[in-house]
Structures are given as C-alpha cells and as structure tokens.
Design brief:
With about 220 residues, this protein is mainly β. The chain has one domain. It is about 0% helix and about 60% strand. The chain has no helices and 14 strands. The strands form 2 sheets. Strands 3, 4, 5, 6, 7, 8, 9, 10, 11, 12, 13 and 14 form a 12-stranded antiparallel sheet that branches. Strands 1-2 form a two-stranded antiparallel ribbon. The chain starts with 6 loop residues before the first strand and ends with a strand.
Length: about 220
C-alpha cells in the first residue's frame, strides 16, 4: 500500500482515511503547423474536496510528433506532483510507479518501424514528497494496437525498490475510456480553432481545449 493513499484495516476490511470528491480542470493547446511534428501542451489540476489535507495534484505534459505512419517519431515529457489523497491511487496510470504522494518526471521516445506497430522507450524519475530518495524506472515497449499485443521490459533502481529487471509478455485489450462513477459529471469542452494557410504550404491549426470535471466516489 505504500504506493497508494492513506488507509487502515478495520474489521478485516481496508478503508480509506479520506473520501474522494474530485474537481478536475484541464487545459490543452494543439499546434499542427510543424508538418510531421504536431505539438501539444496540456495541463491538468485536481483538487479533492473530500480530504482534510494532502489533496492537490497537478500534471504538465508536452508532446511533439505523431505515430500515424511508418517511420514516425513521437517524444513526450510529463511532470506530476500528486499529494497523498489527491486522487484514488488504485485507479491512476500504471506508467508511474508511485501512484500518490510523489513528484516526478517521465520522458518517452517512440518510433514506428512498421505502422501501426511502434517501439517506445520511457524513463521515469520519482521522489516521495519530503524525501530525496530517487526512484528510476526504465521501460521498453513493443506494441501493436492492431493485434492488441505488447512486449514490456522494465528495470527499476533506487527508491524503495532494489535494482531489478523484469520481462513480461501480455495481451493488451485497449478498452475504451469509461467513467469511474455514476456521479461523474462532465462539462462539455470548449474548443477554439485558428486556421491559417499560405500558398504552397499545409494548413496550420492551433487548438485550445478547456474542460472541468467533477467526480465523487
């Protein structure tokens, strides 16, 4: 449970010490005027009204490139700072080793030798809040979304993990995104587009997306 939220065992059952009443704000900027290198910058802020403290989370993510054709490249950088009870740790992304109470960065580089298959290298660097013990996680993925299969090789070092490597082959189903609670309230996004074109060049597009989401579990 050290990767998750504050909890205790009562009457043989695991119980969270905080409830989760989440407000989620998101901002995204897309720019497609760089040809094969579309740029996206995204920021997300989460606030848990159900926790007495340790209830804020923020993510900033930048992405350049795409994976739509053979020999495409894509690079991303993400920074996250998540307090202990800001989100439900059991349902956050497995791309990060710690699921709450951390700050860290994630870098990825992906290449498609034969579309739609692609190779992706990722490096994650995380620290627990109020500590300087750095966890490093490196992973290589070989993914084929068309066949729903993937090969994953990961290596850990530092943090609370001893240095170790794992090799895993598993089938991925890539399910459609679903809401996690009937109380999930989605506010329709507002999209602003600015299109420009000059003779002999491809159209350039800048897009802003704003979204607020409230959720209670």
């Amino acid at each position: 449970m050290e990767r998750q939220n504050r909890a205790l065992v009562s009457d043989g059952r695991l119980r969270y010490l905080s409830s989760f009443e989440l407000a989620n704000g998101r901002f995204r900027l897309d720019y497609s005027g760089l040809g094969r290198w579309p740029l996206a910058i995204e920021s997300t802020v989460v606030y848990n009204f159900g926790a007495p403290d340790e209830r804020r989370a923020v993510e900033v993510r930048a992405q350049i490139g795409k994976l739509e054709e053979r020999r495409d490249w894509q690079f991303t950088y993400s920074f996250q700072r998540v307090e202990r009870d800001a989100v439900v740790g059991a349902f956050t992304s497995d791309e990060w080793w710690y699921h709450s109470d951390f700050r860290g960065s994630r870098f990825t580089a992906a290449f498609s030798p034969v579309f739609p298959m692609f190779l992706r290298f990722s490096a994650v660097f995380q620290k627990r809040t109020n500590t300087d013990n750095l966890l490093r996680r490196f992973q290589l993925d070989v993914l084929d979304p068309k066949q729903n299969t993937g090969v994953h090789i990961a290596c850990f070092a530092g943090g609370t993990q001893n240095a170790r490597s794992t090799f895993q082959i598993r089938s991925n189903s890539f399910p459609a995104q679903k809401t996690s609670s009937p109380a999930d309230l989605r506010v329709p996004s507002l999209t602003f587009r600015v299109l420009g074109c000059t003779q002999g060049t491809r159209p350039r597009e800048t897009r802003l997306l704003w979204m607020i989401r409230c959720q209670r579990t």
